[in-house]
Amino acid sequence: MTLAIDFGTSNTVVSRWNEALQQPETLSLPGLSMTLGNDPPLVPSLAYVERLGADGLVVGQAVRDRGLDMSTDPRFFRNVKRGIGVPWRGFLPEIEGQIVTFDQVGQWFLEAVLNRAKEQTGDSDSLVFTVPVDSFEAYRLWLGELAERLDFGQVRMIDEPTAAALGYGLSQEKTLLVMDFGGGTLDWSLVQLATPVEQAPMGFMLKWGRKKPDQNSAQRPQTARVLAKAGENLGGADIDNWLVDHFHVTQNLPITALTQRLAERLKIRLSDTPTAQEAYFDDGTFDTYDLSLNREQFDHILSQHQFLDRLEASLNQVLQQARRQGVAPEDIEAVLLVGGTAQIPAVQTWVQQRFPAEKIKADRPFEAVAQGALQVGLGLEVSDFLYHSYGIRYWDRRNNAHGWHPIIPQGQPYPMAQSVELTLGASVEKQPSIELIIGELGEAATQTEVYFENGRLVTRQLSESSRTVQPLNDKDGARTIAQLNPPGFPGSDRVRVLFSVDANRLLRITVEDILTGDTLMANQAVVKLS
To answer: Cα(415)–Cα(385) distance, rounded to whole angstroms?
Structure first.
């Protein structure tokens, strides 16, 4: 049996492939899931650390049922996904004398959810993770290391909007634009679905076991070709922060975990009604706050933060990529809206102003990603490309600062058929080793900083010109790629470095000593260099 999990910033969805019915279904996990109105079962992405370790974690709806999300407590975690694999500024919570990272809490959270799912479904040997388009290699590596600890024979990954395109189950439309707008990220993906093919599954394989995907399933494999994609760190959690800040300025509302939750409730209600109200009583000061917001005020707050401008910029980015692939906006046959933030009226109005109403589909906002991801386990072939480029660090004498030289460009299909070669020499007499700092390079655009403020996780845009770089091996013991024996001397090439990207989107290097003919490093993942 195959499970798929869409680990979201605000909510998490778990789906399985029902062999008897030959269709996907979203799981309701007792104690962890919540169901609101006609929405499918959702696991709130909340965690409370009662004691260190996976068995000491309170997860999902149980956190709310016990009121553990009502106070500012270092043991309470929300927006966990945003804090995984990113540079940090400020403090991290300390519990029982130990610093607790978001990587650790995220691992415990997913283990708890998946263990409960396996208890409910019985034997499940295949698992599919979904990942944001704009995720850096550190996040995918974190998932890969988590996969090694999980009791699944096969674990794979697929981009969230690509999975959503498959999850909508459209049979006629073949060129689909997906807007996946959840609690933490805005992701676009233009996916072209081809006719069924008889080929082995690709996807992003993290872990392989004996059991192979069911090729005899009634649902035949398809080829999903990703033509364009764009993403940024923007989502519903940011809007919640903006609303709390609005009431803090206008009514001196305290910034707490509880007021954060009230802001989220106001935002959700405004998707259904033109006006929303909440009341807050501060039991410390005995002050009462009447929080009222209408859609016009809400839209003004979004405008103050250039919300629609950022949507426009990301859409233009994906449409520019599409044009380079020969796809014009009028060639798009369906526009699929996924995620809770995509349900905001201002967002839907913005989309309707850019695409014909008959092309827009918004009826499966929460479960399309997880249910579409199940198809990777059923033999789906994914033809994808690198969203980020890879480069090496060098000293820019003109600007008296470090710069980054790309070696593998953005847009490169993977796995790579051929390696990229780089030759390096010694820079000083009797040089004992060669160091190289390798990074994953984002767009030369706005950089996002993640930090804590008043007990909440906040992201902030830093600049409009600096390139976002995620160094992959800039730590002690990992920068050295070659020990030279005999030592090196300036004036001649000494090592040949071959760079390639595998099917899991991991950058790998091979290092050969030109002088001795020895292979010093063979096809090693850069993020695992030691």
So the answer is: 9
Provide the residue type at 17 as one letter.
W
Residue 52: other Cβ atoms inside 10 A: 15
What does 363-383 look like in DSSP terms, one character per residue? S-TTTHHHHHHGGGGGT-EEE
**For residue 41, what are the contacts with CB-CB under 8 A and spacing of at least 6?**
13, 26, 27, 28, 29, 33, 34, 35
The whole-angstrom separation of Cα 300 and Cα 181 is: 20
* Lowest mean pLDDT segment, chosen from 113-127, 382-396, 424-438, 472-486: 382-396
Say how many C-beta atoms besides its own lie within 10 A of residue 332's C-beta.
Answer: 18
Distance CA 432, CA 153 (A): 43
How many other CB atoms sit within 10 Å of the CB of residue 455? 15
Single pTM value for the model: 0.74
Structural contact between residues 527 and 473, judged by C-beta atoms closer than 8 angstroms: yes
Pairing of strands 223-232, 381-385: parallel
Q: What are phi and psi of 123, to 5 degrees?
A: -70, 120
Cα–Cα dist 7/15, whole Å = 11
Determine the Cα–Cα distance for residues 518 and 414; give it in Å rounded to an integer: 28
Structure confidence by residue, pLDDT tens digits, 381-420 = 666 677 788 899 988 888 888 888 889 988 788 788 889 9
Tell me the two tokens of residue 530: 């030691």
Three-point CA angle 54, 151, 82, nearest 5° = 50
Contacts of 60 (CB under 8 A, 6+ apart): 12, 29, 31, 32, 33, 34, 43, 44, 45, 46, 113
Q: Whole-angstrom Cα distance, residue 1 to residue 19?
A: 8
Return phi, psi of residue 29, to 5°: -100, 105
Residues 261-265: contacts with CB within 8 Å, 24+ apart? Answer: 261/69, 261/70, 262/291, 263/291, 264/236, 264/240
Asked whether 523 and 506 are in contact (CB, 8 A), the reply is no
Record the tokens describing residue 32, joined without a space: 């962890």
**What residue type is assigned to position 278 of the chain?**
E
